[in-house]
Amino acid sequence: MMTYREKKQLYQLLTQLMDKRQWDKAIEAADALRQAGVTDRTMFQAILAAYIDGNDAARAEVAGVEYQQRFPLDGISRFYLGRVAFLNGDWETAEKQFTTALADQTLVGWYRGAVHSILATLYRQTARGEKAAQHYLESAKYKDLEHGQAAEYSNYLFNLHYLDKPQSFMRQAAEKYGQLLASIPSYRHDKRRSNSPKIRIGYISPDLHFHVVAFFSYAFLHDYDKRRFEVFCYTDCEEDNASREFAAMVDHWQNVRGLPDEKVAELVYKDKLDILVDLTGHTAWGFLQTMAYKPVPVQVSGIGYFDTIGLPAIDYFLADHYTDPPENDAYFVEKLIRLPHSHFWY
Fold it and tell me: Residue 314: helix, strand or coil by DSSP?
């Protein structure tokens, strides 16, 4: 029989594993905690979250039934049960759970924002783009920068591309993202900090594994002139064979998985780079909050996103004459760097 203290320690381990997105280990810890017999609601919610975020629909469904039998059916409960239904493909039940959760006036703060977010995702996946955008925007209002506000606004910006919005509207919406991060302090760069004769370039992305963005970026990592450039890569992915191949190509490779943006920015700053290239933009698990600290004097974005970032800390956006003809200059906060050929291939 496991003591409450032992259960608490296991719960803490579970949350740490989830923070690092180590889902296989998190599911193992959730199994152990559930088998120990949990009466604490917060602990059981962590078990459900591990199964859901770890994409284990069968475990989530069984645990959801147990949860429903043990705890009150309030807004928070409906949030978790709706996520279980969503994961199992029962979108009608999921939508009912989420809308009922939002009708519960006791559901406040982060949880209300989280329900808006998952409901937005449901609407996006069922081709209800206007509702999706509305709920992503609402989600951002209930969170702060430490708890996902910027990510929700990124979701909002990304989702706007499913709608027929004028480019002037898109730029204005993106500029509000920059305003959201305006309180983040930035590093100063009065002079070049490295004595290296080589130009030091960093690429930062969560997608440096078997992922389309990584393959679009392959030439950056494989074909650079090692006599003139020194290349650094920063990622927070679960590394696979593709990651290991990329790591072998470049001069420096660092997996920052689990570190907060402020710490990642500090690591990048200490590497004394000349240029930092973000390969993610407003897509999932990106590093835009790291870029907001301006850890490098010249910052660029491109490849993984296709529109203005809206963040003043990013100086340039990678483009070409096909993706962005001259008239598109007015719709970017960043200055466009146009390559002579298309930088996309299929």
Answer: coil
- Rounded CA-CA distance 99/38 in Å is 28
Both structure tokens of 42: 């917060």
Q: What is the rounded distance in angstroms from the CA atom of residue 48 to the CA atom of residue 40?
A: 13
The confidence band for 342, taking pLDDT boundaries of 50, 70 and 90, is: confident
Q: What is the CA radius of gyration of the chain?
A: 22
Superfamily of domain 4-180: Tetratricopeptide repeat domain (1.25.40.10)
Q: What CATH code would you report for 199-339?
A: 3.40.50.11380
Please tell me the distance from the alpha carbon of residue 163 to that of residue 264, in angstroms, as a whole number. 34
CA distance 238 to 252: 17
144-186 per-position pLDDT tens digit? 999 999 999 999 999 999 999 999 999 999 999 999 999 999 9
- CA distance linking residue 176 with residue 308, whole number of Å: 12
Report domain extents, the chain: 4-180, 199-339
Fold agreement between 4-180 and 199-339: no
Q: Is the pTM of this model over 0.85?
A: yes
β-pairing verdict for 252-255 and 335-339: unpaired
Question: Tell me, what's the pLDDT at 93?
Answer: 98
Distance, CA of 212 to CA of 218 (rounded, Å) = 10
